[in-house]
Amino acid sequence: MAALSHAVRRVSQALGRGPRRPWRWGLLGAVLLFGPGLWHLGRMSWEQRRLDRQLAALAEERERLQIEQQRLQTDSTYVEGRIRSTFKVARPGEIVIPLDRSDGD
After folding, report:
1. pTM of model > 0.90
2. What is the torsional sign of CA 58, 59, 65, 68?
3. Mean confidence (pLDDT) of the chain
C-alpha cells in the first residue's frame, strides 16, 4: 500500500497542480482506478507463462516415461541391460570390469 501512495505522490507531482490541465486529474484517476488491476493482470500473465513452460516440461517427461515403460514391458534385452548397469549384475561365469566414466572422457 505504501508503494501505491508513493506512486500516487509521484504522479501527482509530475502532473502538476492547476486548473489549466484537467486531463491530468483524469489520468491520475485512471491510474488509481485501474493501476492495481493492471499490475495483477501482468503478474497473472507472467505466472501463466511460467506454468505453461512447466506443463510443457512435464508433458515431455511423461512422454519419455511412457516410452521407457513400453520398452521395459516389451524389450527383454533392454531390461537386462538396465539391470546389469543399475545393479552391477553379471551372469554366472562372466567377469565384470568396472570402468569409471570419468576415465573415458
Report:
1. no
2. negative
3. 81
